[in-house]
Amino acid sequence: MKRNLVSVSLSALLSISLMAISVRPVATGLRQSSRTSVDREAENKILAVLDKMVKSHQTYLSVPAQDGKALRLLTEATGAKNVVEIGTSTGYSGLWFCLALQRTNGRLTTFEIDHQRAALARDHFQEAGVEKIVTVIEGDAHEQVSKLKGPIDVAFIDADKGGYVDYLNKLLPLVRPDGLILAHNVEMVPDYVKAVTSSADLETIFYTEGAGLSVTLKKH
User: Fold this and answer.
1) Which pLDDT tens digits describe the chain residue by residue (220 residues)?
2) How far apart are CA 27 and CA 155, in angstroms?
3) Residues β-bridged to residue 202
4) I want to staple 121 with a disulfide (CB 3.0 to 4.6 A). Which of 50, 91, 107, 141 is the partner?
5) Domain ranges of the chain
Protein backbone atom coordinates (compact mmCIF):
# COMPACT_ATOMS: atom_id res chain seq x y z
CA MET A 1 0.00 0.00 0.00
CA LYS A 2 1.50 3.31 -1.06
CA ARG A 3 1.02 6.29 1.23
CA ASN A 4 1.68 9.98 0.82
CA LEU A 5 4.56 11.38 2.86
CA VAL A 6 3.31 14.17 5.12
CA SER A 7 5.72 16.82 6.43
CA VAL A 8 4.78 18.96 9.41
CA SER A 9 6.06 21.98 11.33
CA LEU A 10 6.78 22.03 15.06
CA SER A 11 3.49 23.79 15.78
CA ALA A 12 1.61 21.19 13.77
CA LEU A 13 3.50 18.45 15.58
CA LEU A 14 2.31 19.87 18.90
CA SER A 15 -1.27 20.02 17.65
CA ILE A 16 -1.11 16.41 16.48
CA SER A 17 0.34 15.29 19.81
CA LEU A 18 -2.34 17.05 21.80
CA MET A 19 -5.09 15.66 19.58
CA ALA A 20 -3.69 12.16 20.05
CA ILE A 21 -3.79 12.30 23.83
CA SER A 22 -7.15 14.10 24.01
CA VAL A 23 -8.97 10.93 22.99
CA ARG A 24 -7.62 8.76 25.78
CA PRO A 25 -7.15 9.11 29.57
CA VAL A 26 -4.14 10.99 30.87
CA ALA A 27 -1.29 8.61 31.72
CA THR A 28 -1.18 7.60 35.36
CA GLY A 29 1.32 9.62 37.35
CA LEU A 30 1.45 12.61 34.98
CA ARG A 31 1.35 15.66 37.17
CA GLN A 32 -1.50 18.09 36.57
CA SER A 33 -0.52 20.80 39.03
CA SER A 34 1.34 23.93 38.02
CA ARG A 35 5.10 23.72 37.80
CA THR A 36 7.02 24.26 41.00
CA SER A 37 10.35 25.96 41.58
CA VAL A 38 11.86 22.48 41.97
CA ASP A 39 10.60 21.55 38.50
CA ARG A 40 12.09 24.69 37.01
CA GLU A 41 15.40 24.16 38.78
CA ALA A 42 15.63 20.59 37.47
CA GLU A 43 14.79 21.72 33.94
CA ASN A 44 17.32 24.54 34.04
CA LYS A 45 20.01 22.10 35.16
CA ILE A 46 19.39 19.90 32.11
CA LEU A 47 19.23 22.90 29.77
CA ALA A 48 22.55 24.14 31.13
CA VAL A 49 24.23 20.82 30.30
CA LEU A 50 22.67 20.81 26.83
CA ASP A 51 24.02 24.31 26.23
CA LYS A 52 27.44 23.34 27.54
CA MET A 53 27.57 20.30 25.24
CA VAL A 54 26.86 22.43 22.19
CA LYS A 55 29.43 25.07 23.10
CA SER A 56 32.11 22.45 23.85
CA HIS A 57 31.33 20.46 20.69
CA GLN A 58 30.35 17.32 22.61
CA THR A 59 27.23 16.54 20.57
CA TYR A 60 28.86 13.92 18.31
CA LEU A 61 26.34 12.67 15.71
CA SER A 62 23.48 14.00 17.83
CA VAL A 63 20.17 15.59 16.87
CA PRO A 64 19.99 19.36 16.34
CA ALA A 65 18.09 21.40 18.90
CA GLN A 66 15.01 21.58 16.64
CA ASP A 67 14.70 17.80 16.74
CA GLY A 68 15.54 17.68 20.44
CA LYS A 69 12.58 19.96 21.13
CA ALA A 70 10.36 17.65 19.08
CA LEU A 71 11.54 14.62 21.08
CA ARG A 72 10.70 16.39 24.30
CA LEU A 73 7.34 17.64 23.03
CA LEU A 74 6.18 14.22 21.86
CA THR A 75 7.36 12.46 25.01
CA GLU A 76 5.75 14.89 27.43
CA ALA A 77 2.54 15.38 25.45
CA THR A 78 1.91 11.62 25.38
CA GLY A 79 2.77 11.15 29.06
CA ALA A 80 5.42 8.57 28.17
CA LYS A 81 6.73 6.47 31.05
CA ASN A 82 9.03 4.09 29.18
CA VAL A 83 11.29 5.51 26.45
CA VAL A 84 13.86 3.47 24.53
CA GLU A 85 16.62 5.08 22.49
CA ILE A 86 18.88 3.30 20.00
CA GLY A 87 22.05 5.36 19.69
CA THR A 88 22.98 7.28 22.85
CA SER A 89 26.04 9.01 21.43
CA THR A 90 27.15 11.46 24.14
CA GLY A 91 23.69 11.84 25.68
CA TYR A 92 22.43 14.98 23.94
CA SER A 93 19.16 13.55 22.63
CA GLY A 94 18.74 11.59 25.85
CA LEU A 95 18.76 14.82 27.84
CA TRP A 96 15.96 16.20 25.67
CA PHE A 97 13.97 13.09 26.54
CA CYS A 98 14.79 13.63 30.21
CA LEU A 99 13.29 17.11 30.13
CA ALA A 100 9.98 15.37 29.49
CA LEU A 101 10.54 12.28 31.61
CA GLN A 102 11.16 14.27 34.77
CA ARG A 103 7.64 15.61 34.28
CA THR A 104 6.01 12.27 33.46
CA ASN A 105 7.92 10.30 36.11
CA GLY A 106 9.27 8.11 33.33
CA ARG A 107 12.54 6.37 32.49
CA LEU A 108 14.93 6.23 29.55
CA THR A 109 16.78 3.12 28.41
CA THR A 110 19.42 4.01 25.86
CA PHE A 111 21.83 1.83 23.85
CA GLU A 112 25.34 2.79 22.72
CA ILE A 113 27.92 0.55 21.04
CA ASP A 114 30.92 2.83 21.65
CA HIS A 115 32.39 2.72 25.16
CA GLN A 116 33.91 6.21 25.08
CA ARG A 117 30.67 7.84 23.96
CA ALA A 118 28.71 5.85 26.53
CA ALA A 119 31.07 7.06 29.26
CA LEU A 120 30.63 10.67 28.17
CA ALA A 121 26.87 10.22 28.13
CA ARG A 122 26.89 8.89 31.69
CA ASP A 123 28.91 11.93 32.78
CA HIS A 124 26.43 14.26 31.11
CA PHE A 125 23.43 12.50 32.65
CA GLN A 126 25.03 12.73 36.07
CA GLU A 127 25.93 16.41 35.61
CA ALA A 128 22.32 17.10 34.63
CA GLY A 129 21.03 15.23 37.68
CA VAL A 130 19.05 12.63 35.72
CA GLU A 131 21.26 9.56 36.17
CA LYS A 132 18.59 7.89 38.32
CA ILE A 133 16.07 7.85 35.48
CA VAL A 134 18.48 6.75 32.73
CA THR A 135 19.92 3.31 32.03
CA VAL A 136 22.80 3.24 29.53
CA ILE A 137 23.37 -0.17 27.96
CA GLU A 138 26.63 -0.73 26.10
CA GLY A 139 26.92 -3.18 23.24
CA ASP A 140 25.30 -4.06 19.94
CA ALA A 141 21.69 -2.92 20.17
CA HIS A 142 20.68 -5.41 17.47
CA GLU A 143 21.42 -8.12 20.03
CA GLN A 144 20.47 -6.24 23.20
CA VAL A 145 17.05 -4.93 22.15
CA SER A 146 15.55 -8.42 22.24
CA LYS A 147 16.12 -8.44 26.02
CA LEU A 148 13.82 -5.46 26.57
CA LYS A 149 10.40 -5.78 28.14
CA GLY A 150 7.39 -3.79 27.01
CA PRO A 151 5.28 -1.88 26.86
CA ILE A 152 7.36 0.89 25.33
CA ASP A 153 5.65 4.26 24.99
CA VAL A 154 8.21 5.97 22.75
CA ALA A 155 11.07 4.39 20.81
CA PHE A 156 13.74 6.47 19.06
CA ILE A 157 16.12 5.12 16.41
CA ASP A 158 19.29 7.11 15.64
CA ALA A 159 22.07 4.61 15.03
CA ASP A 160 23.54 2.62 12.13
CA LYS A 161 21.41 3.50 9.13
CA GLY A 162 21.57 0.02 7.61
CA GLY A 163 20.01 -1.38 10.77
CA TYR A 164 16.90 0.80 10.99
CA VAL A 165 14.49 -1.80 9.59
CA ASP A 166 15.89 -4.48 11.91
CA TYR A 167 15.45 -2.15 14.90
CA LEU A 168 11.91 -1.37 13.77
CA ASN A 169 10.99 -5.05 13.48
CA LYS A 170 12.40 -5.80 16.93
CA LEU A 171 10.87 -2.79 18.67
CA LEU A 172 7.38 -2.83 17.13
CA PRO A 173 6.11 -5.85 19.12
CA LEU A 174 7.18 -4.08 22.34
CA VAL A 175 5.63 -0.70 21.54
CA ARG A 176 2.14 -0.31 22.99
CA PRO A 177 -0.88 0.48 20.83
CA ASP A 178 -0.93 4.27 20.33
CA GLY A 179 2.80 4.31 21.08
CA LEU A 180 5.33 6.16 18.93
CA ILE A 181 8.36 5.06 16.93
CA LEU A 182 10.64 7.96 16.03
CA ALA A 183 13.60 7.82 13.66
CA HIS A 184 16.28 10.37 12.78
CA ASN A 185 17.98 11.23 9.45
CA VAL A 186 15.23 9.45 7.57
CA GLU A 187 16.33 10.83 4.20
CA MET A 188 19.25 8.38 4.54
CA VAL A 189 17.08 5.29 5.09
CA PRO A 190 14.61 4.83 2.22
CA ASP A 191 13.96 1.21 3.17
CA TYR A 192 12.86 2.33 6.63
CA VAL A 193 10.63 5.06 5.18
CA LYS A 194 9.02 2.47 2.94
CA ALA A 195 8.41 0.16 5.90
CA VAL A 196 6.68 2.79 8.05
CA THR A 197 4.58 4.25 5.24
CA SER A 198 3.35 1.02 3.64
CA SER A 199 1.82 -0.71 6.66
CA ALA A 200 -1.87 -0.33 7.43
CA ASP A 201 -1.01 -0.70 11.13
CA LEU A 202 1.21 2.40 11.16
CA GLU A 203 0.63 6.11 10.51
CA THR A 204 3.70 8.22 9.77
CA ILE A 205 4.42 11.92 9.40
CA PHE A 206 7.73 13.69 8.82
CA TYR A 207 9.08 16.65 10.78
CA THR A 208 11.61 18.42 8.55
CA GLU A 209 12.62 21.56 10.45
CA GLY A 210 15.65 19.74 11.85
CA ALA A 211 17.59 16.88 10.26
CA GLY A 212 14.63 14.74 9.22
CA LEU A 213 12.55 13.08 11.94
CA SER A 214 9.83 10.54 11.23
CA VAL A 215 7.00 10.15 13.73
CA THR A 216 5.16 6.84 13.47
CA LEU A 217 2.03 5.92 15.41
CA LYS A 218 1.41 2.24 16.10
CA LYS A 219 -2.34 2.10 15.62
CA HIS A 220 -3.03 -1.41 16.91
Assistant:
1) 344 455 555 555 555 554 444 444 444 444 444 567 778 999 999 999 999 999 998 888 779 999 999 999 999 999 999 999 999 999 999 999 999 999 999 999 999 999 999 999 999 999 999 999 999 999 999 999 989 999 999 999 999 999 999 999 999 999 999 999 999 999 999 999 999 999 999 999 999 988 899 999 999 8
2) 17
3) 218
4) 91
5) 7-22+37-218
